[in-house]
Design a protein that fits this description.
Helix 5 packs antiparallel against helix 6. With 120 residues, the chain is mainly alpha-helical. It folds into 2 domains: 30 residues; 87 residues. The chain contains 7 helices and no strands. The chain is elongated, with a radius of gyration of 20 Å. The site of heme C has 17 residues, from helix 2, helix 5 and helix 7.
Length: 120
């Protein structure tokens, strides 16, 4: 009796795990770039530096702000502090809304974010 209860509980738990991963698969929007893609498009490409140094044009700034704005659509890596991720990325999104590159630059705390989340 007890044995079948345990088997049942394990089965329910396994099912919950399957359902959970399914839900994430559905929610993940293909239009939202991953953090790696955002970093590649903004940082590796030199786009961020170009805009921050004033050498970019309006299109460069638009592209940069759009990409950076998607950081907040991403979740913190599995097992890290999602609350701080939200705070860091919201700061960036809020700065983007002002349209002020200086504010965006100040909100981009590269080292602080990398220390906690990069390579996780
Ligand atoms: C809100 C968090 C956050 C901020 C702010 C941030 N990064 Fe990143 N960055 C990451 C994460 C997370 C990764 C690892 C992505 C991965 O490999 O999945 C990363 C990866 C990178 C990479 C490697 C990309 C690759 O293709 O492997 C570079 C370069 C980079 N960041 C540069 C910067 C610079 C420069 C700044 C500041 C101007 C910055 N990042 C700000 C989170 C951030």
């Amino acid at each position: 009796m007890l044995r079948s209860w345990i088997v049942g509980a394990v089965a329910v738990f396994a099912l919950a795990l399957v359902l959970d991963s399914n839900v994430e698969g559905v929610v993940k929007d293909k239009d939202i770039p991953t953090v790696k893609e955002i970093m590649g498009g903004c940082m590796k490409s030199g786009l961020c530096k170009k805009v921050m140094s004033g050498k970019g044009d309006e299109d460069d700034q638009k592209k940069l702000f759009k990409l950076l704005g998607h950081l907040a659509d991403n979740k913190a890596p599995e097992g890290t502090d999602d609350k701080n991720w939200k705070a860091l990325t919201k700061g960036i999104t809020d700065a983007i809304k002002t349209g002020d590159t200086k504010k965006v630059n100040a909100a981009l705390k590269c080292a602080a974010c990398h220390k906690e989340y990069k390579g996780k």
